[in-house]
């Protein structure tokens, strides 16, 4: 990408941005009507026109039913899409709206609706218009929350959701270049006031960015930090894969895995802490029924397990499989226990209803 942050994106640059998508059957473009996603639509339409055979494009706007102007903005996107020769659909979020955590619930509903529509339309990808500035904000938000390495890797260029690839082709592009691209093309765009609403964390952090930039921490360097952390995170994931294989090999296939996963505690204890944590997280997320486990809670569980394994060593040498659990905890709908020198992770029994 050009070093000049205010230069419009050329057709050649756009070709590079969308390079990996040319052989997809169809792509859903997630377009809210704001400058970033309108630019995504305009760039994708121009890119599409330069080939005789290229993916079908379907523009989708989600109306969350939260702002009265949203319906008008969706119609505006439809009009612009029609000018570019692209089909457009508006999807409505109809479910119950929560009182707290509204942005997160809206985002969850949005991705669910987008993935559903892509599947039905035979599209392999959903494209969003996240920019380098969004990446920097995401990193900052997660730093302030004390996230682990996976969270600090921020957004991935490609990920999967409900069988559809979520692609962010503009993740290295500064927002200012997208605005410049639209100005050059004389295309208007909506201004979403919630982007500046100080009731939400992200706009408050966004307001801090110019001060950080003045200290050298601009979006470019924050996004670079996120991609370096993502690289380290990918390496640790490979180590965790290897550790899982190592533990399985030690079991020679004879460990009882009937209702979950089980690891030999003394072999588990030899692994680095970060790898032990990931193995627990993976097993709890796969077998629990209450959504992803919080990192802090898995850290507390691991500390308790480590203490129990250390305390159990002399006893387990005397009675290697006495079967009695010396630790038993539930977390995120999974039951974790230490018994007979092994760690077991299984789905937790359903909780008794409070009504009786
Ligand atoms: N109402 C919408 N309809 C369609 N696409 C949307 C809508 N809102 C957001 N998007 C897509 O998601 C991208 C990111 O939008 P935004 O930064 O507002 O999301 P967010 O709420 O911060 O959540 P996240 O960044 O996790 O997606 C947009 O560029 C656009 O591609």
UniProtKB/TrEMBL annotation:
CDD domains: TilS_N. It is found in: Cytoplasm. One of its GO terms (biological process) is tRNA modification. ATP binds at residues 32-37. Signal peptide: none annotated. NCBIfam families: lysidine_TilS_N (TIGR02432). The N-terminal region contains the highly conserved SGGXDS motif, predicted to be a P-loop motif involved in ATP binding. This is tRNA(Ile)-lysidine synthase.
